[in-house]
């Protein structure tokens, strides 16, 4: 309309059509067509003040008459927008449903055009340009298309996956091929990406993959425990992208596209026989990408990263993160938990409760509601036990504190015969636990009868050469019943020396002739 106004003004000033066309920069036929329309519409120069560009266009270039809008049933585009958020629903399906109800309604193309115009009025098509501060965010994701590693023995190709990380401000890239997308490889790739950068961002932005997010809630996503461990180790926050909102991680989406076009395309005809060979080639290509100048602004990814990102980002921790898995385990009645074919103690007061167990390469940590309860070195062989003495009940600790030397001291206080019996019975046992248990039983007889009675019975037992708990108890019971201990001893000696009685099961001396 600016040119139309200029044509009307110049022609009114007396210039020829050719001169007007040269001044405005259009064809003479265009000038003539514009003047013809102005005459037919009764428009002359100067234009009235109330005639703006829209009014001038409506007079000179009126739109062709269209079918009245009332003849069409206007679709409910708010309903269409809601339904499109549901899984598997498409615009064509919604148009089919609309057209089935209104056979004289809009055709599919007009339906889509009008829907786009409606969305524009709602602001749904307006995008928010994300601004990232230096050192703030690292976006991570896996590429959709795999690379391949060939088995040198069989020639079989195995798919491997590209892990891609992109810094928000500088677009600095890190790409690594991993054998799987499971937690160990996923977390190891994070560690390698941070070490390649030499610093740590304040925020990690992953997708809602199961290795990062256990429950993808919009406002309060629940992180996978292993991913939360990594975040705590490096002192960073995790802000997963919202479900079905790829623009939340547009930075890594474009980085994935670059990785597929620059890395996979460049290596498409190269055969790799190991993951190490493939990652060496990937590192070389990514280094070239980071060093290349930008097309639309000065500098390169490396320059922006070194100048702005690295000085502000956090430093790497002194210790490298080690992968650890999490388990839930019940405390058994022996106040130990069983996990990964090993037994680890917790305080006995926690019997019957469930613990969260973090199993690292060398350390097992046991938590209850986030509080560390115990830490053990991992067992060296299957079903080995790791026990902290303070976790035992007091009576168990008292039992284990008993040594045979202490029991001998207690026996010496009763008398020399009792001490001698304990020493003699120890010689006939094969295990220290068996010796201690028998000695405890003998000393208990002093409480059941009396210390003097036990000392007397021990003297008789020494004469008999029998030192067991049962022998001493029998001697004490006989003494309590009125039989003299010396007579009982003589009786036992006599019985032991007596000739066996005749019996059909006894062979006799004639058998051996």
List the helices and strands and how they pair.
Blueprint: H1 2-12, H2 17-24, H3 28-41, H4 53-60, H5 77-84, H6 91-101, H7 108-122, E1 137-142, E2 147-150, E3 157-167, E4 173-178, H8 183-197, E5 203-205, E6 213-215, E7 222-223, H9 225-234, E8 237-238, H10 250-266, H11 275-291, H12 301-312, E9 325-330, E10 336-338, E11 342-345, E12 354-359, E13 363-368, E14 371-377, E15 384-386, H13 394-401, H14 404-414, H15 416-427, H16 432-448, H17 451-464, H18 469-480, H19 485-497
Parallel strand pairs: 1-5, 5-8, 11-15
Antiparallel strand pairs: 1-3, 2-3, 3-4, 6-7, 9-12, 10-11, 12-13, 13-14
Class of the largest domain in CATH? Alpha Beta
CATH fold group of the largest domain? Nucleotidyltransferase, domain 5
**CATH architecture group name of the largest domain:** 2-Layer Sandwich
Tell me what portion of residues adopts beta-strand conformation.
5-15%
Q: Rounded to an integer, what's the Rg over CA atoms?
A: 46 Å
> Alpha-carbon distance between the termini?
143 Å
Write the CATH homologous superfamily of the largest domain: Ribonuclease H-like superfamily/Ribonuclease H
Low-confidence stretches: 483-501
Overall strand count = 15
The residue-averaged pLDDT reads 83
Number of helices: 19
Number of domains: 5
The major sheet is characterized as:
6 strands, mixed
Verbal overview:
- This protein is of the alpha+beta class.
- The protein has five domains: 59 residues; 54 residues, no CATH class; 176 residues, Ribonuclease H-like superfamily/Ribonuclease H (Nucleotidyltransferase, domain 5), CATH 3.30.420.10; 71 residues, no CATH class; 93 residues, no CATH class.
- The protein is built from 19 helices and 15 strands.
- Strands 1, 2, 3, 4, 5 and 8 form a six-stranded mixed β-sheet that branches. The protein has a four-stranded antiparallel β-sheet with strand order 9-12-13-14, with no helix packed on it. It has a three-stranded mixed β-sheet with strand order 10-11-15, with no helix packed on it.
- The longest helix has 17 residues.
- It is elongated.
């Amino acid at each position: 309309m600016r040119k139309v106004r200029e044509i009307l003004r110049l022609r009114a000033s007396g210039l020829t059509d050719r001169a007007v066309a040269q001044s405005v920069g259009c064809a003479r036929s265009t000038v003539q067509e514009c003047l013809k329309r102005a005459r037919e519409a009764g428009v002359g120069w100067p234009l009235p003040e109330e005639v703006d560009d829209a009014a001038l266009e409506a007079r000179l270039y009126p739109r062709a008459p269209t079918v009245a809008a009332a003849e069409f049933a206007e679709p409910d585009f708010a309903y269409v927008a809601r339904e499109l958020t549901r899984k598997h629903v498409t615009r064509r399906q919604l148009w089919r449903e609309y057209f089935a109800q209104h056979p004289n309604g809009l055709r599919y193309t007009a339906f889509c055009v009008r829907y786009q115009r409606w969305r524009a009025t709602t602001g749904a098509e307006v995008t928010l340009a994300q601004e990232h501060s230096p050192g703030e965010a690292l976006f991570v994701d896996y590429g959709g298309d795999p690379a391949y590693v060939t088995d040198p023995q069989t020639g079989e190709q195995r798919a491997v996956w590209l892990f891609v990380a992109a810094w928000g401000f500088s677009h600095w890239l890190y790409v690594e091929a991993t054998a799987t997308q499971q937690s160990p490889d996923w977390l190891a790739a994070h560690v390698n990406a941070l070490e390649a950068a030499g610093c740590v961002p304040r925020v990690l932005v992953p997708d809602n993959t199961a290795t990062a997010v256990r429950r993808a809630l919009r406002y309060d996503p629940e992180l996978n425990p292993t991913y939360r461990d990594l975040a705590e180790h490096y002192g960073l926050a995790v802000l997963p992208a919202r479900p079905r909102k790829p623009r939340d991680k547009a930075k890594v989406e474009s980085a994935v596209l670059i990785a597929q076009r620059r890395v996979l395309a460049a290596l498409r005809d190269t055969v790799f026989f190991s993951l190490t060979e493939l990652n060496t080639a990937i590192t070389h290509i990514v280094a070239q990408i980071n060093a290349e100048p930008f097309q639309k602004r000065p500098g390169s990814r490396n320059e922006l990263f070194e100048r702005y990102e690295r000085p502000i980002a956090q430093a790497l921790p002194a210790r490298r993160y080690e992968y650890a898995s999490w388990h839930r385990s019940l405390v058994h009645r022996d106040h130990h938990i069983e996990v990964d074919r090993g037994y680890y103690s917790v305080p006995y007061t926690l019997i019957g409760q469930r613990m969260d167990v973090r199993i690292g390469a060398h350390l097992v940590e046991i938590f209850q509601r986030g509080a560390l309860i115990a830490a053990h070195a991992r067992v060296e062989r299957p079903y080995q036990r790791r026990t902290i003495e303070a976790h035992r009940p007091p009576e168990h600790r008292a039992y284990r504190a008993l040594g045979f030397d202490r029991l001998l001291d207690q026996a010496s206080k009763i008398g020399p015969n009792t001490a001698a019996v304990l020493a003699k019975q120890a010689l006939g046992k094969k295990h220290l636990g068996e010796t201690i248990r028998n000695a405890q039983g003998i000393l208990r007889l002093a409480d059941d009868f009396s210390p003097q009675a036990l000392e007397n019975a021990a003297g008789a037992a020494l004469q008999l050469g029998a030192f067991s708990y049962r022998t001493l108890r029998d001697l004490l019971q006989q003494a309590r019943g009125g039989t003299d201990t010396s007579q009982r001893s003589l009786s036992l000696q006599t019985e032991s020396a007596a000739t066996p009685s005749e019996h059909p099961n006894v062979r006799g001396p004639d058998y051996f002739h």
